[in-house]
């Protein structure tokens, strides 16, 4: 159930980021205070263009030649591009630290294949004199 809500939340956050970063334009054409055309991403058609397509002049304004009869409105939503870009790790000290950390973490859980004794084949030095007597350091 938790993964289902996580998937839904991540989907809505992705849509929110997409919506907030994109920009779009909505153009509206009003004639006699009635919306005649609505267009996304393009320019709205004027009254004359729609009248020629419909061939129905009865719904047009009586004073279509007046300048105040038709009006265009544009709503512009500009995208927000102020997000901080991801920086790549370029410092050598950080890379060396990460490399050593990963290597030691991977090897932390690995055991030795067999018990090895590193000093098994070690031969001690042959001493010609006894160092304890030479330095006169006796334990009492």
Automatic annotation (TrEMBL):
Q: Which domain of life is it from?
A: Bacteria
Q: What range does the record give for the signal peptide?
A: 1-25
Q: Which InterPro entries match?
A: DUF8199 (IPR058512), HYC_CC_PP (IPR058060)
Keyword Zinc attached? no
Any idea which UniProt keywords this protein has?
Signal
Residue ranges annotated as transmembrane are none
Is Signal included in the keywords of this UniProt record?
yes
This chain belongs to which protein, by name? Secreted protein
């Amino acid at each position: 159930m938790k993964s289902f809500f996580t998937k839904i939340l991540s989907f809505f956050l992705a849509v929110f980021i997409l919506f907030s970063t994109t920009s779009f334009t909505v153009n509206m054409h009003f004639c006699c205070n009635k919306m005649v055309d609505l267009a996304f991403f393009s320019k709205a058609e004027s009254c004359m263009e729609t009248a020629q397509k419909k061939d129905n002049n009865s719904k047009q304004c009586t004073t279509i030649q007046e300048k105040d009869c038709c009006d265009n409105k544009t709503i512009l939503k500009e995208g927000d591009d102020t997000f901080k870009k991801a920086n790549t790790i370029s410092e050598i000290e950080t890379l060396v630290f990460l490399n050593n950390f990963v290597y030691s973490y991977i090897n932390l859980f690995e055991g030795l294949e067999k018990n090895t004794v590193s000093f098994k084949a070690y031969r001690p030095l042959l001493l010609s004199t006894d160092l304890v007597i030479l330095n006169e350091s006796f334990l009492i």
